[in-house]
Amino acid sequence: MATEEASCEGRAIPIDSYDTALCIIPPKRFWPMFNRLRALYDKAYEKWPPHMNLVYPFVRAEDLPEASALVASQMSLISENTTSSSEAIDVRLDAADVFPHKHHNTIFVYDKVGERASRVQDLRQAALRALAHTSTTNYRMHMTVGQSQDINDASHKFLLEKASLLPAAEWTVDKLYILVRERMEIDGNAFSQMKVWGTIDLSTFSICRADPPENFDRSKLLIGTADEISQTAPDNHSRVNYPYTFSDDGRWILHQHSTAQPPGESDLRSLTVASYNVLAEFTYPPSESRYPLIVQNILQKAILADVLVLQEVTDDFLSFICQDENVRGHYRFVSSGPPNQPDVEPLPSHLNVVVLSRWPFTWSWLSFRRRHKGSIIVRFTDIGKQDGGIFVPVILATVHLTCGLTDGSVSSKKQELQALITHLSEQYPRNPWILAGDFNITTSSFTIDAALRKKSISSQTGIYLKGLEDAISKAGLVDTWTSARINGDFIDSEQDFGRQMDMFEGEQGATFDPTVNHLAAEVVGAGFNNRPQRYDRILVKGEDFLVSGFAIFGRRQGHLHDSIGKDAPEQKLSYASDHWGIRCSLKIKTLGDDVPPNNSAKFSVPVHPSPVLGPLNDATDLRSCLDGLGVFPSEADIRRRKEAFDLLKEVVLDGNLLTERGKPTFVLVPVGSYGLGVWTTSSDIDCLCIGPISSKTFFSLATQRLRRAEGRGIKLRRRVNANSGTMLELEVFDIKMDLQYCPSATVAETWPHSMRLPATDPVFSLPTQILAKLKPARDMYYIQRTIPDYAAFRTAYHLIKYWAKHRGIYSAKFGLLSGIQITVLLARVCKLLSHDGTPVPLPSILTTFFHHYAQFDWSTQLAFDPFFHRQLRYVRTPREPMAILGFHPPILNTALNASLPSVRTISDEFKRAGAFLSQEHATWGSFLSAAQGSAEFLTAFKTFIKIDAQFWGVSLAKGSGFVGWLESRCVMLLVDLNRRLPNVHARIWPARFMKEDASEDETDYQGHYLIGLDKWEGSTEEPMSRDDMKATLGSLHAALQKFETQIRSDEKYFDPHTSWMSASLVNRSELGALRPDSREWGEYTVGGDDFDEEEEEEEEVLGSDDEGPLDSEAPTGKLKSNKKAATASHLARPAYSGKFRSSADVINRIRWDPNMDSGDYIVGYEDRFLGIMERALDSWKSEQTDEEFIPQHRILYFKRMSDGVLVWDRKERRDTVFGSGISSMNAI
After folding, report:
1. Which residue of 46, 773, 820, 983 sits 20 to 30 Å from the alpha carbon of 1114, by its own alpha carbon?
2. Are 540 and 478 in contact (CB under 8 A)?
3. Are 79 and 99 contacting, i.e. CB atoms less than 8 angstroms apart?
């Protein structure tokens, strides 16, 4: 006691320095656990080690030698007076609490057992006594974990809960540590750090000094004095970490085996990877209502993967899914264990990335510059490739880049992505890579353009956004969604398929869609961010993987968990997350996989991206130019066309979309430019109806219905009977429409699923004529589901078509480009540019398109989609000067109408466009302005062939028929001219001209078609002599005379009483002033004779009051005496003896008439071997592809089973179904 008193009476050393501290430091095995939180939440993390202060502030640095000696002496005295071993100082940090301050709060962990805490407090009091001080403040033993701002905020509560989830840290305090602050300057900024000055050993009371003071991370005084870091404890830097697995005793434990049972050979070659941003809860306490929906999504049979990467995982959610038996059963390995298990630490951030896997792996953490941001680098144990006999494992890197569209956030994204790619390139240059997660890269052109206009981001940030895509491409990474889409291995949902026309560039394949997902809409709110974005991606190193499939999931709503139950007031529907999930199927390449499994590669012409010069790189300017030219339809145009199509659908189908007794359905779909969404206000709407009845029956019924609806804005212009089948030309609300029909019950029954089937599916084993009818719809669906960025495709198509029309090379009937040809040419460019998964900007698509086809050799090369024609069996004939192959059969070459002169014209125009776009200061505005080519055409040639046409009839149908026939025959003249005069280039302008002073109201229609003549530039002959010139003129006149004879001799289209044509050679000066003729030759008359004269003569009039197919109604007959009436008379069907109705008509009638029970009828037919047989009508097969198909000409009769009456008899030509043939109804 005397010594103690002497000490107390000694000089008091001031303890007012914040540059020193006397503290307790836990063993280093606990540091990673604490530092994972401290690194993110403790502002003193870089300055202090994990510690509990005993005395702070402490003595001044110059007093440390004396003060440490006094403290050591005091501790020694206490030890001498204490003989019990139970007096050892034990610490157990097992609880969390908070110190509220004026401007912030300190969150800490402490020992909740008061006895142990008091021993630490006694230690503090002893140190103070040694320095002649007593405690004047309430001391509470604690270790700081972090700080928070608002004690009532959810973020504070989440952090406090996270601290409470830390596993208990228990040890015996055997040393006291003295820290001293070292001040320094780093990059011009002042910085300080506490360093280890020395230790006081509580067993020997010796003092160990570090001279100079040591950094606490590398201090020798800290190593060896306590347990070192366990190799099994995860670290948040480059240290190898192990996943957790569920043990037999019901606990999650670390899986530390270096090897595992290898999977089968097929599993080594293939891998499925899924990624899902599950949307963290940001309110406290967190709601678990969405959790079951998320688990339900990831456990879908079609979605289960080998590896699942989850983003925005919270402690609460991870604990939830780790409790699910099905999750544990499929995903045996998880990068982090459930935080609610006492010996498992919490996740470091509120938003975390977690990897779940069927196969074992190890992982390390790559930290980015921004706090809370980094990547889990997964190294699989058993999945990889063989490289020279060495196993090279697959490396998977998780991605969750900084969110937002600001200058700062985009810059952070750039740095984070570059850091990740650099790390992989340096550490794993030979390994196969997979990058999966939420890239948070804004893809919608609408959003980016709006942000630039509103100055929300700078132009430099816009460049950075493009640079992100370039960085991905340069790293050799392939976007699996793009690759799968191009190859047809990904199919849009029907919801997305129907919304393609409303999308902007970069919105295809969106995984974050505020326009559909209410959770996403709540996140972004209103404004330009409220557009679909393709944030989530799975990228793979292209040289190591083949993409074999892709899927998007989580797009179905479900009932929230807290709204389910008997007591729930209502069943609230919600999506599981604000993001959709994605899943891809991969195959690891082996030797030989690089050889394409098809022969199309040797025929396909490679597409190389062309540089985009200066102003041409401005996609906004491009769209503005097109908009200024009126290329894009207005909202009113869009609405009116939709109303027109809906009206046609209503009238033709009359609501009969479903049938009774499981019978087939009718479908009516738009095809052509309207179906593809590339229409303009001058475009027709092409419609295709598919159903189970015959074409004859359909058009009879459709005709009657359309005539009945003439008062609703429908005009039936004419009926066209061509080799390809029948077509109705209509006007609905003054919008031209073409209606075609395809008889196929199977396709109609399975619509639209049938459009997703491969081209080789047995469903399409149909007759050639039916396949020809289906081709536009099949092509349309294929194009829409395989173009990587359909919005960019549509804009590019609009520009190309505008250019082609105004340069005079757009018209299929004249042998020039057509809509399907532009589609094929553009589609292959889009796909070949993006086949490696790199998004291609719109300007680059267009410049590449024009430069590519400017260099294309049309005489020898084929233009086709190599991703569709994998096995190309097409043989080009010498009679095909151009080969642009479409998609589905029966006809592949879409350019069969082309001639050598038209191909030369097309080639010249492509070369001209390519040269223009190569100019340094070219703009899209100047390019489109230069496309006004009709005036240039009229001045470009000295000599023309002038085809005069004249029509003075009244009938619109006859006038249109005459003009259409004449135009379609012009190709013959071009072919004949090239045959006779191969050195003369003949260019036809694909439009009709009229005199500039002619009136639009004239009913004596006159027009001219012009073919310019010039010496072909490819000709090497000398200038023609007079004799040669005379021979040339003779050949020209002979060709024109032959052409005139061909046109005038066609009695079907040429009527000398109402029309005339002639062809002659004229000089430029003889043309006079001309302008394009957009008139329709003839006037529409309701129900006039023009339409009826074109109807097929076998069209039959039904003679029964019973109703027929579609709505059980049959067409009204027309008497010839009424054909010239101004309006059609819609009377009830008369009873008459007409042409005997076919067996097909009877089958359709019985099946479709709700007043007739098809189950009550049997079909009598003649079997080739067994004679007359009978079969129930319901089991009768009408499809030729069916194994049980019987030709209908073998049908002998139809019998009603209920009374045994023959209702149709071929031999007696008796029909009581329709009343045709010999019928007792004739007497009525």
Report:
1. 773
2. yes
3. no
